[in-house]
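Q: Here's a chain of 269 amino acids. Please give me its 3D structure as tokens.
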Amino acid sequence: MYAAAMTGPVQSGTRTGARGETRAQARTGAVAVATSAADESAGTRARPGEALGLDTGLPPAAVRTKVRVPLRFPDGWETVADVFTFTGLVDGREHLALGLGAYETAEVPLVRPHSECLTGDVFGSQRCDCGPQLREAVERIAETGGYLLYLRQEGRGIGLYAKLDAYALQDQGLDTYAANRALGHGDDERDYTAAAQMLAALDAPRIRLLSNNPDKALQLDALGVEIAERTSTGVHLSDVNLRYLRAKVTHTHHTIDLPAAVPPADSAA
């Protein structure tokens, strides 16, 4: 049902061990491609985990609970997921992993790290593409076997209320990233250290990554996860999210194949 482009493995340069320093250094240099000039003027962005006081090692996490949950989406599509909870996650948040399809026997599981979006995932907001991406990801992963990592990083890490404050600024003409900065936040404050811990606890050190966001691949690679390939999700346009998607393409280099007629990302959304 869903088709998407694929890219090759993430290139991180010479590796000096399971989680060698060169991986983090490669990510630090490459991430500049996916940040704005405004971010760069504010200083060098921290490597994944640094805000949490971590070194290049990855603290161990463990599976806490596994429970089987039947899923049914608003369009009637159904599947079953094994839902995992964890102990030892560095940020202390209640992240989940959904094992879908033949995940236990998948040689290289398909994995989507999906950041929580209450407005899109639950209420069907059309201001973003999060809800349709979640629906697509669950079906595609169930077909091949893998994991959906549901990460409690609402609003690109700034929280629900701040995200809604940013929406109000977007209604006044700022794009999604400028609105975050106007509120004193970074363009994207998400850290995928816990995601890497979850994959290690699930014994999934090598994955196929389902994401349009190059920063996810860069962070996970720097944290020791081997990205065999990166596959894009589909394009989920609505009447009100066109400029939002364009901002993601032009500002953080998301691999979203938008039609040429989409307006530039210098106005609301």
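Q: Can you summarize the key feature?
A: The radius of gyration is 18 Å.
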